[in-house]
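Objective 1b of the project was to move from sequence-level analysis to a structural picture of ligand recognition. The entry below was assembled by the postdoctoral researcher (A.K.) and checked by the PI before modelling. It contains the amino acid sequence of the target and the SMILES of the bound compound, zinc ion.
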Amino acid sequence: MIAANAHGLLHVWEAQRCAHPVVRALHVLAAARPERGWSDWLHAPIGERDAALLNLHESLFGAELHTTAACPCCGDRLESEFEVADVRSESAAQPPAPRGVWLQLQLQGYAVDYRLPNSDDLLQVTAQRGDAQDAALRLMRRCVSRARLGGDEIDAAALPEAVAASLSAEMARQDPDAELRITLVCPACGASAQTHFDIVTYFWSEFDDWAQRVLADVHVLARAYGWSEDAVLALSPARRQIYLDMVGA
Ligand SMILES: [Zn+2]
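Corresponding predicted holo structure:
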């Protein structure tokens, strides 16, 4: 897949290097999955976006992932290797409600029409000033289209804490890959700790390494054989490696 689309992916890497992490992840997805455009990925539920990034990582770089965290008990540095399947939710086979589908929560006499948060929501919410509580409220207002108590319309901000908490829990249940987590076990003290796995940042780091390696390969083969960048990128990874071996790189 990399060989087939290396040119397009390298273009995204070059053009988006300084962009917001979420923005550049969406551009990678749009380049790798052109049947869905940028706007489609911008409005896809977070878990659907992150599951697609996990799948793309698997097809481009393999299923293996690694992470590091500090042990909450002894402070030791925990390093762990795991696989895409370890962080992907069991219900990934059932995609979350797609873009534009409204869901409803009924609780304690309240009826709330809502949709799942997407990348556009997070970008808009985090671009404004305020603390985490303000951000959570803004996110809820964006995702709730209508809230009612009995027959009366109310502002989403007026929902009681318990209903708002249930709404968040229901969103998480509907879009389980929106919060990827991995359990690490400390070899020093035996404690286990759950940590958030940020596939958006992780994917770009691997993608950046890949782009640097590809450009280094182009440099070596262009110098040895006089081939153009396009000619080197058109080689399959296996053939490229054979030529690299022959020139002793
Ligand atoms: Zn420990």
